[in-house]
Specification:
Elements (H helix, E strand, L loop, with lengths): L1 H51 L4 H6 L23
GO molecular function: DNA-binding transcription factor activity
Protein name: MADS-box protein-like protein
Pfam families: K-box (PF01486)
Length: about 80
């Protein structure tokens, strides 16, 4: 008789735990859907903002590539790279 009481109490606790976990799962799924929708909205807004900006890519395509040979060489490793007065 005592074992049956223990088993029924254990079963009751397991069912309560399962019910709690099922509710928690539904809450997490709802939170997940909310966050997915929020991310999609933010991406949509960001895409609209990017479409409104003038295209700067063309400006950079027209710019000539950087040529380091047109600048004087500065040796940063030596302390006497600056002219002394």
């Amino acid at each position: 008789k005592g074992i049956n009481k223990i088993r029924s109490k254990k079963t009751e606790l397991l069912y309560a735990e399962i019910e709690y976990m099922q509710k928690k799962e539904i809450e997490l799924q709802n939170d997940n859907m909310y966050l997915r929708n929020k991310i999609a909205d933010n991406e949509r807004v960001r895409q609209q903002q990017m479409n409104m900006l003038p295209s700067t890519r063309n400006q950079f395509e027209v710019m000539p590539p950087f040529d380091s040979r047109s600048f004087p060489q500065v040796n940063l490793l030596t302390g006497n790279s600056l002219p002394s007065n």
